[in-house]
């Protein structure tokens, strides 16, 4: 599942970030910001009118991501204990 | 001993500038959002051993793979590529102890450079409050670099770091590359950091309310509206006091001095002109009080989050919000703050519309005309009608900025993807001391402007308005025969369709250098024309309502600020952008004033 499809307040775990083309700077920056396999993640808020951007909590940090950015992040619902990193 | 060069490097909003200020005694701007520092700043201190230390404060970055102009500066200094800047002897990597999961990754990236490196573990007080236990010794051991705890916002909070830098033998760490950086961060965290499950419960509770899809926008609108109400309602008594003071000073001088040129220069020129501007100090400070508190609290990035969708529709980004909000103070820092916008096209559009955000220098013009023409009346029991009109003028600027951005987006037929990717900081109580310093500096900047350029222009205008003296047997006021009077008369041909009389036309010219001078110029021009009352009383009787509204409309767009145009030239490195900006602003100002005046006359 993509992060853009995840419902609010459902705990999930990142499985990876997908590049949308060769040398995707947004995907690279997402990995640098800690969107890497095994990290627990949750959507904590969404902007008015169409859930775009969404507010994502990863570790103790919160990031605002637009839908197109969130769509690059692959996640599985569940908590870190249940999902193999 | 040679000067030791150190550079403060780290993720955005980890307290580098607060640490820089603590080390060097400087007063660089600090606030609670990513991207406050947008260029390298230099400072010095003398270590206890007597050694000179030169400190560089650098913009925050998540990685050495820079994605925006401010991040590129940090990358270039760290890699020794910055022209005119030698590689630092020591990199002080600052991390936020409450956010190590994110910040340690960049530490490992810096360590891989193989240069002397020390970790400043900052905000250890905040970490303690949240129950996060950081074992500094274990952290140093696992990272393979020295670690020093700091609290940059507290007095003596950098003492340990100063002593360490002074006494330690600075050595380069092993540059052996780490395989999986994130796995390494997790390993180090497991060994050195004990943290409770949920470290940000309060922040989450606040965010649930202020980012609520319905309540969030309402709160944002209420905050903005409160600011404009306060600017009018709270400032009034102070302004009355200042006005009375200058009135008494003018009357006193007039009584002391014999009638003549000196008395005219002092009373009609300097006291009337300068007093006409100083009176707006309380309003400017109230506006800044709100801006500073909002900046420190961490609310601004939340507002950017709420507005991103709307701003994207017109071709901007939520990241444009903070530079545009700064432009309400002054467009110059606002335009410079756009350096934190990674996308060059988003950045250019933000620069182009920044002057449409009503800067504090326009406040005097607005409040003068509002006080003269809009009755002091309460609406629906709670609102002040004058405050509502002021809010409407600001809103007119914002709406036209949105329209201009939308047109720019259409013109360039942009299909590319623009990133937001914005970190939302933890909330923080504003430090009273920081806010007080911010206000003090604002007051000083304003008074220096008054004592410098505004005073100079006022004196020049007095000369131009007093000479040459009228010919014998002249009937009208002397000023009409002066150089300024003639220039005003010529300009009136162009501006008559907007309802501007020659007095207004004179005031527009020095307003190019500083917008507030438009008000002091009017004060001088009318004082020289033999009017004795306060400026607000004069315009209330001398001008028609359509003329006043037309001048208000003119100042919503006001293409007239030479320093802003110079900043645009520097930031975009292009004269073309300068001409585009000046041209479109002038066209909009003329069209808006023309429409306002003609419709106003037709209705009246």
List keywords for this structure.
heterodimer; A: 85 residues; alpha+beta; five-stranded antiparallel sheet; B: 604 residues; alpha/beta; six-stranded mixed sheet; two-stranded antiparallel ribbon; 11 strands; 59% helix
Describe it.
The complex is a heterodimer of chains A (85) and B (604). With 85 residues, chain A is an alpha+beta fold. In chain B, helix 17 packs across helix 18, helix 20 crosses helix 21 and helix 21 packs across helix 22. In chain B, a hairpin with a 3-residue loop joins strand 9 and strand 10. Chain B is α/β, with parallel strands linked by helices. The relative contact order of chain B is 0.08. The chains are: A alpha+beta (85), B alpha/beta (604). Chains A and B meet through helix 1, strand 2 and strand 4 of A and helix 3, helix 8, helix 13 and strand 11 of B. Strand 4 of chain A pairs antiparallel with strand 11 of chain B, so a sheet runs across the interface.
Task: Briefly say what this structure is.
By secondary structure, chain A is α+β, with helices and mostly antiparallel strands. Chain A has helices at residues 25-32, 67-70; strands at 12-17, 40-46, 54-58, 61-65, 73-77.
